[in-house]
Amino acid sequence: MGKKDDPKLMQEWFKLVQEKNAMVRYESELMIFARELELEDRQSRLQQELRERMAVEDHLKTEEELSEEKKILNEMLEVVEQRDALVALLEEQRLREKEEDKDLEAVMLSKGFSLNWS
């Protein structure tokens, strides 16, 4: 029997694959959370700027100022859409990860290995 057939080595290999997957997933989540924080900050700054501009009554504003308010509002809507997309992406990744885990577990069980990840 070669090294590739050694059950202890295979069990260790499966464990290392699982650990690697967990680290990659964690990194991906952190990147999404960082982007979410950036968008949250951007949205907050836009809201503040819009509040300041809206403190002045519309009849006292120039067309350019009114146009700028609309631009800020549109940008806020884009930020909200981007944040929604991140939430959807995160959920999609979690579902895909569950499927990957099931696949790896099925391979392990088919080879006669236990599911002891600890």
From TrEMBL:
Keyword Coiled coil: yes
Keyword Zinc: no
Domain BMERB: start-end pairs: 1-106
A GO CC term assigned to this protein in UniProt: nucleus
Keywords tagged on the record: Coiled coil, Nucleus
Any one Pfam family match given in the protein's UniProt record, by short name: bMERB_dom
Superkingdom of the source species: Eukaryota
Ranges in coiled-coil conformation: 56-83
Compartments, record wording: Nucleus
Protein name in UniProt: Microtubule associated monooxygenase, calponin and LIM domain containing 3
